[in-house]
Automatic annotation (TrEMBL):
Keywords: Activator, DNA-binding, Repressor, Transcription, Transcription regulation. NCBIfam families: argP, PRK03635.1, PRK13348.1. It comes from the Bacteria. GO terms for molecular function: DNA binding; DNA-binding transcription factor activity. The keyword Lyase does not apply. PROSITE patterns: HTH_LYSR. Residues 16-72 form the HTH lysR-type domain. SUPFAM superfamilies: Periplasmic binding protein-like II (SSF53850), Winged helix' DNA-binding domain (SSF46785). It comes from Phytoactinopolyspora alkaliphila. Belongs to the LysR transcriptional regulatory family. This is HTH-type transcriptional regulator LysG.
Length: 311
């Protein structure tokens, strides 16, 4: 979150002390009271007292004392408040210093992005932003069907997601669709699938799956076969590894078209169902704040998406 609290006794909203909020944010970010104390240059006892005071003020437990420390359900509300307050505070200080409407050097921007976007179009967006903007990034890799959970609990300020409905307190913008092609090596296709794609053949052909959250292959199979199938699965949590494993004949998998075009042109890869594809609409959700930092990030992301994704 990168939150730095104000002076002791300064209130926020309904009497929340900024120093207490800073301690809470540091504990959540760093995972322990001791690490939070090092981050804020105070003693662990001071961190403990600030958390206890904040919990007394809120009338409920906010931090699970575990390894690592995690916010309770009530604490998640304050995670987002702490992050938003930190962002606005930095930008206000930059404006008061007479600088451009940008955050002070050292701003850390947290976001959740799916692996295939990271492997294709998203990082150029951050490179464009970073070339003229003093920020660092905390990128959480998360499946597009699950990334909104990190927005809801306040862990990130923005996310690439498959969810078109805005999370409470967020804005949403369509980015475009990522097109996936079902690919394998030509020898794998000939061995397992042959001419025609019968359900029996598809059920016997080994299939790549990114992780237990990845449902793209199953969705594609259901579309082809008209029913659910249960082929043998190889789990491989790597976007680039997917394309390479398919090229080597390990299994077939759904890979972004940007990553397989060259292999298809060379003949190293083949579509198991030529002409069939799966389009996954993506959206950009971010905090609903009047923030130059978030506006600049959003502009960079939407521009990169427009150049790479399908409309």
């Amino acid at each position: 979150m990168g939150y730095e609290g104000g002076s002791r006794g300064t209130g926020l909203g309904l009497g929340i002390d900024l120093a207490h909020l800073a301690a809470f944010a540091a504990v959540v970010d760093e995972g322990s009271f001791e690490a939070a104390a090092r981050e804020l240059h105070v003693t662990p006892s001071a961190i403990s007292q600030r958390i206890k005071s904040l919990e007394a003020r809120m009338g409920r437990i906010l931090v699970r004392r575990a390894k690592p420390c995690r916010p309770t359900e009530a604490g998640q509300v304050l995670v987002r408040l702490a992050g938003q307050t930190a962002l606005l505070q930095r930008e206000a200080l930059a404006d008061l210093a007479g600088g451009p409407p940008a955050p002070a050097t050292g701003l850390r921007m947290q976001m959740a992005v799916n692996a295939d976007s990271l492997a294709t179009w998203f990082l150029p967006a951050l490179a464009t932003l970073a070339s003229g903007y003093p920020a660092t990034f905390d990128i959480r890799q998360e499946d597009q069907d699950h990334s909104v959970a990190l927005l809801r609990d306040g862990s990130v300020m923005a996310a690439v997601t498959a969810e078109p409905r805005a999370v409470q307190g967020c804005r949403v913008e369509p980015l475009g669709a990522m097109r996936y092609l079902a690919v394998a090596s030509p020898s794998f296709r000939d061995r397992y699938l042959g001419p025609g794609l019968s359900p029996d053949r598809l059920s016997a052909a080994p299939m790549l799956v990114f992780n237990r959250k990845d449902a793209l292959q199953q969705r594609f199979l259901a579309r082809l076969a008209g029913r659910e199938l249960d082929p043998p699965v190889t789990f491989l949590p790597s976007s680039h590894g997917f394309a390479e494993a398919a090229r080597l004949g390990l299994a077939w998998g759904m890979v972004p078209e940007q990553m397989v075009r060259d292999g298809l042109d060379r003949g190293d890869l083949a579509e198991i169902a030529p002409g069939a594809f799966l389009d996954v609409p993506l959206y950009w959700q971010r905090w609903r704040l009047d923030s130059p930092a978030l506006a600049a990030l959003t502009a960079a992301v939407t521009q990169a998406a427009a150049a790479s994704l399908r409309r």
